[in-house]
Amino acid sequence: MLLTILRILFLPVLIILSSPIVTAEGIANDSINSEEVFQRELEAASQGMKDAQQKGPLDIPLLDQAVLHLPNGYAYVPNPAAAKFMTAMGNRVDENFLGLILPEGVDANWAAALAFQKSGYIRDNDAKSWNVDDMLKSIKEGADETNKSRASRGIPELDVVGWAEPPNYDDINHRLVWALTVSSHGAPADDPLSVNYNTYALGREGFVNFNLVTGSKELEQRKPIAKSLLASLEFNQGKRYEDFNADTDPAAGFGLAALVGGALVAKKFGLFALVSVFIAKFGKIIAIAAAALFGIFGKRMGGKKGSGSMDA
Question: Pfam families annotated for this entry (predicted)?
């Protein structure tokens, strides 16, 4: 079921990416071949996710920086399995990407991408004076540049609609939260909107970021989940924000505002925004994938038809 829906979803993209053919039969054959390649890659990546899952409750070390106290009812998929899955879905990931968090339950249509950037200590004094309108303008400009790359790769372009939640910084716990509403480029006004809900925890040497993607209608239900995951993160002794030593530790070359309206955001928009549009339009796909991770189906992906394959 999962792979069948995804093949239908990606078929227009696969046709665009195929070589120019002058006959209808040639177009059909070429798109089928491309579709088969995509199916095999996605199938292998999905199986890798299932094999690599780590179920909560569990304490998960995040490099040498922190521990994620993963609650019951969630699964964490680390690299390289998570990165392969993101790539198969058409997203670019870099060395900062750590893994994915998925929920248990067939109605939980969301996923969270986890990353750590060793940026150096980020001074947070600019949070008192930032301008959210200017930040939004910067993000939209960065998204326009990212869309040029997406178009060249045959991947649908995305538009930043506006704030789903303006930036809010907790200067006691050193946590930042903000959210963007995103849509498919040129989509009708009644098309489902998606949300990139971003939470950050600042440490001595950089920051951990949870990027939760969901539909805009489900945002209010998902906010407690995102904030709960953020609260479940604990920096190691010596790696906490308050452990910073101005005499010995390097500082980041940017302030807190760069995590909202700077080049870092434009880059991350390119990494994860595609997933958010998938969730807005095809939320059940994520739910089915999550169910598969928790063994609800209990059958290997990619099996032959008639033998319990998810390709039915």
Answer: DUF2167
Q: Taking residues 219-225, report their average pLDDT.
A: 88
* Closest C-alpha among 175, 174, 144 to residue 159: 144
Phi and psi, residue 266, nearest 5°: -60, -40
Per-residue tokens: 45 = 């990546």
Binned at pLDDT 50, 70 and 90, residue 141 comes out as confident
Strand partners of residue 181: 162, 195
- CA 22/CA 35 separation, integer angstroms: 19
Residues 6+ apart with CB under 8 A from 265: 138, 139, 142, 258, 259
Angle, vertex CA 117, rays to CA 116 and CA 123, nearest 5: 115
pTM of the predicted model as reported, rounded to 2 decimal places: 0.72
CATH 3.40.50 fits domain 55-293: no
- 299 three-class SS: coil
Instruction: Supply 1's token pair.
Output: 């079921």
Specify whether the CB–CB gap between 286 and 110 falls below 8 A.
yes
Q: How far is CA 265 from CA 184, 256, 282, 305, in A?
A: 18, 12, 25, 43
Residue 243 sits at φ, ψ, to 5 deg, of -85, 0
- Residue 168 is predicted with a pLDDT of 93
* The residue to which tokens 């088969």 are assigned: 36
Q: How distant is the alpha carbon of residue 14 from its chain centre? A: 22
